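Suppose a colleague, Dr. K., hands you the sequence of a protein chain of 180 amino acids and asks what its three-dimensional shape might be. Before reaching for any lab equipment, you can write down a predicted structure in token form. Begin with the sequence itself:
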Amino acid sequence: MAAAAAELVGPGRTVALGASDQAAVVARCLLAVPGLTVVTNSLPAAGLLREAARERRAAPAVFLTGGTPTPSGALVGVLAEETIRSLHVDLVILGAHGVTASEGVTAVGPAEARTDRAFIASARRTAVVADRTAWGVLGPADVAAAQEIDCFVTDDALPAAARAALESAVGELVVVRVAR
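The predicted structure, expressed as tokens, is then:
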């Protein structure tokens, strides 16, 4: 799924990565994209990109948002939100704690949701990467209605009813075959 998300990013673009379990995996896939600038509030993703910069000359430029770190390594809070709102990015790639047909994408908490919403506001396009385990989970904080998502990347184990709901709501549904 991370590779499919990275394929949405063209050379020379500015992409934002939200802080999710998928962020570092997507960041690794982005290393092959030339001339890329990455904005992130994910300490693990930034660390991976920084290490790549030490090892190669063609690593992406990386901007951290600043903010207060959560136990999972997400930078959140007013500083992160204000920094993100001051930027313009071509694409934001977010994870999701939960996704439902009625509530859309939800986050694990209000601080994470506010940061994700700031990313969406600063981006021309929004992509969400979430596997079948996020479907039907309602997190405590709203991030975005499904109709606000330009591209939703998921795995082929997503139930048919969920797939149909997403196909009718999001701009594009990318279903990735996963090894079992």
